């Protein structure tokens, strides 16, 4: 058995543990394997082990791997910073985008999503802690976008994503996730349930599941430490 296989199984067990511990519904949390910086061979191994959702952050690197792995059944999620000139590649090659943080990105992705494909699933990235430098929309900006979604028929708004600053312990880790869940509860409507909460990474998976995450984005715990850091 490969190391990836073993680690993938361990992560799935961790998820199941947290689901039970926090009385979440079985199957209410999905695993997104974050494969940025990892070669296509490792992704193929994870597919063999039953993993089918993968997250990528760097578009050039992702496009090569998507092409190399096109024979496999993979759902591709874009989770990195979205540069203006890259929206077409994202619209044409991905199933989901988690890192939307401007109306301009929404307009471009809506225009560029090919008609032959189903609508692109999107999550709005929300800035929870008020750090100037960090990407993400304010709750007010998110509310405006939600009200305008009818103008973007090629996109399907699924929910919110957040990427909080690292915290010391479980209780502290839970705070931003709780804030995001409460915001979702406040802004969700029958027509727009915002059922997806994309939150939790290798180091704060339990806290995220405790607070209602439906999609955890896990890289290091599955593939090991990355060889080059996030740009
Ligand atoms: C890299 C990355 C992850 C995965 O982080 P790990 O700590 O390796 O699990 C999750 N989400 C985003 C947005 C990332 O860029």
Automatic annotation (TrEMBL):
Pfam families given in the database record: Ala_racemase_N (PF01168)
Modified residues (N6-(pyridoxal phosphate)lysine): 36
Keyword field contains Thylakoid: no
Domain of life: Bacteria
Cofactor(s) named in the record: pyridoxal 5'-phosphate
Domain Alanine racemase N-terminal positions: 13-225
Matches recorded under SUPFAM superfamilies: PLP-binding barrel (SSF51419)
PROSITE patterns tied to this protein: UPF0001
GO terms assigned for molecular function: pyridoxal phosphate binding
Keywords attached to this entry: Pyridoxal phosphate
InterPro entries: Ala_racemase_N (IPR001608), PLP-binding_barrel (IPR029066), PyrdxlP_homeostasis (IPR011078)
Keyword Cell division: no
Family indicated by similarity: Belongs to the pyridoxal phosphate-binding protein YggS/PROSC family.
Role summary: Pyridoxal 5'-phosphate (PLP)-binding protein, which is involved in PLP homeostasis.
Name listed for the protein in its UniProt record: Pyridoxal phosphate homeostasis protein
Protein source organism: Sedimenticola selenatireducens
């Amino acid at each position: 058995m490969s190391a990836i296989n073993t680690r993938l199984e361990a992560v799935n067990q961790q998820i199941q543990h947290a689901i039970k511990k926090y009385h979440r519904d079985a199957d209410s949390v999905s695993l997104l394997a974050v494969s940025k910086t990892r070669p296509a061979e490792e992704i193929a191994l994870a597919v063999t082990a039953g993993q089918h959702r993968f997250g990528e952050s760097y578009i050039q690197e992702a496009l090569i791997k998507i092409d190399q792995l096109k024979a496999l059944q993979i759902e591709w999620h874009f989770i990195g910073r979205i540069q203006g000139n890259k929206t077409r590649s994202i619209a044409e090659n991905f199933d989901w985008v988690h890192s939307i943080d401007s109306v301009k990105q929404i307009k471009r992705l809506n225009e560029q999503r090919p008609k032959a494909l189903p609508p692109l699933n999107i999550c709005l990235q929300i800035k929870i802690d008020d750090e100037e430098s960090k990407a993400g929309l304010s709750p007010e900006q998110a509310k405006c976008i939600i009200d305008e979604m009818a103008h973007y028929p090629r996109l399907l708004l699924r929910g919110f994503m957040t990427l909080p600053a690292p915290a010391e312990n479980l209780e502290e880790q839970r705070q931003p996730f709780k804030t995001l869940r409460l915001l979702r509860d406040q802004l969700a409507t029958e027509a727009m349930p915002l059922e997806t909460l994309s939150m939790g990474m290798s180091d704060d998976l339990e806290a995220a599941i405790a607070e209602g995450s439906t999609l955890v984005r896990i890289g290091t715990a599955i593939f090991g430490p990355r060889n080059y850091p996030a740009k």
